Structure formats: structure tokens, C-alpha cells
Amino acid sequence: MAKNDQELAARLEKQLRDYRVDGQPLPGIANPVALTTLVKQLVESLHRVDFVKRIRDKKGKISERRTDPKDDMFDPIRAAVWHAERGNVDEAFWIVFLFVACGRNLKTGYGLLRMVYGAFNDQFVWTWEQYHREENGFTLWLHDRLPAIEKEKARFKFGNHRQYESIRHLDGVLQSYASWVGPERSHVAMMEAAKAEAGDDPKKLFAHLYKSMDAVDRFGRLGKFDYLTMVSKVGLANIEPPSAYMTDATGPARGAQLLFGVPGMGKKSRKKMDELAIALDCELKVGMQVIEDSLCNWQKSPEEFVAFRG
Fold it and tell me: 169 and 66 share a domain?
């Protein structure tokens, strides 16, 4: 572990060990091994957030090949940053959405995303502009190509967070997203309208956008949370999650239940977990995305560190 990580881990471990809720230590880390494991997950989550920010800060150093889904060098985050640097904000938002909608599979990588964005075997790319060129164009294209796509479906796997999704539903997902952005087809206009309603406060704006994304088909808590936090990390909007949204969570809620010792998983218990997680971050100051991610991964293996990815 690098020196900076060692210092960070030592700080987090002390803060967690000293932390009290109603005068009592956190029951989930009474075992020192569980405490060490949670700290490692926190550090790992911070690395994932910082990784995207480091890509964003490498202005002018990203190859244009990263933007081409038909090129093996394609990388959606670098592609989004590349487009944002050149003022093509709509394409940057669109790529981030497609990335979250498809995910990155541990075995097939960006195969599904490259197939969708790169229009399978056709010689064009489903850019934001191309998507809007013809009404229902993507839907007609997808269902025409679906038999051929399904013959190669082993290459086109969703990421872990979207593992129960189907390629057959993608046209509905994309169509609902385009409708959410609005008739102007401008993400800038969409963000300005959101600010007019919610204000500029990053947390209030995130909460407003999160709620409004109920309009996006097949995007639940995790899809909305992943998309909006990635929009923030890439630098497309100044937004920040105000909570871990435990009321709709599964893995993070189990982690919070284990850490804080909250009985039950009902609505009242989940609300309490969310409040406790927010209060904990006021002490740790790592951000709610890191709290959400690390609790989710920690509960899967609370006494042995496993780097969960995908």
C-alpha cells in the first residue's frame, strides 16, 4: 500500500473506531478484522472516484481513437471527456448514459456498449445527433438487427449493475432517456431547467435530477445513482449525492444495517440507515458515493477484503 494510502487508511480507521452513535461504538466493526476490511473498501472506492477525476484532468492528452466504438482503444469515460473538452456536451452526456445503461462486463468488457454505440456491423455510430435524425430510427434498426445480434450475444453482456437487463429493451430505455432530456434535445437546456427549479446547490440539484429520472425506463435507484455520479465525476455538472438513497437500496442497505446494527429492513429502518450514513460521512468526509459503494462491497465479505468490480 502506497504511503498516501497508508495515511488515509490510518485516518479512516481511527475515525471509525472513535465514532459513536448515541454514545455507542459501531457494532459492525467491533471485530478489528471487519474494521480493517471496511477501511480497505473505503480506500478502494476513493480510488475509483479519483481515477475518473484524473482522466478528466488530463486535458488535451486523450487520443481521438478513444472516442471510436469500432476501435479496440474505445473507452467511454475518456470519450466523454474528449467530447466535453471540445464543447460537444450533448455527446459527452449521451456516452455516459450509454455506458451506464450497458455497463462494463468483467469478461466481455465494453462489448455491448461498443455494439450499441457503434451500430453493430453498420458503418455509422449512434451519436446523439444520429439518434435524433430519424423518428424511431434506433428502434427500427435494433429490431431489424436483433436476430444477428442475438447470434453473437455471448460477446454482448451487460455489466454487473445491469446484469438482468435485455438488449430487447434498450430501445425503450434510450427513447425514455431522450424524452427525459427534453424536446430541445439539449442537455445544457435540461440542466438549466433543473437549476431553475432546484437551484444551484449541488446536493439539491442532484436530488432533483434523481427524482426526475423516474421517467427513464428500467432505471432504478442504482442506474440513476450511477449515471448522475458519473456525470459529476466527468465534470459535466456540479452535482453531489445528498445521501446513499438507502430507502431503495439492497447491498448498501445491508452494509449499513451491519455497520450500524439497525434492526429490520422496512421503510423506517432504511430511512434511519440513510440518516446514519449521512452523519457518518460528515465525520469521514469521503462523499456519499464512496459511502454507498464501500458499504455495498463490504457487506459481501465483511471480514476479508475482495476488490469487487464490474
Answer: yes
Q: Where are the alpha helices (DSSP H) in the chain?
A: 3-18, 32-57, 76-85, 89-102, 111-117, 128-131, 137-151, 170-181, 187-198, 202-212, 221-234, 251-260, 267-284, 288-300
Same-domain pairing of 21 and 67: no
Buried b (16+ CB within 10 A) or exposed e, 38-50: bbbbbbbbbeebe
Structural domain for 251, as ranges? 3-53+243-300
Do 91 and 168 belong together in one domain?
yes
Read off the pLDDT of residues 166-215 as tens digits, 9 standing for 90 and up.
999 999 999 999 999 999 999 999 999 999 999 999 999 999 999 999 99
pTM of the model: 0.96
- CA-nearest of 125, 123, 122 to 113 is 125
Same domain, 154 and 268: no
What does the DSSP 8-state code read for residue 109? B
On the 0-12 / 13-18 / 19+ scale of CB atoms within 10 A, 55 is: buried
Residue 78 grid cell: 475518456
Are 76 and 149 within one domain? yes
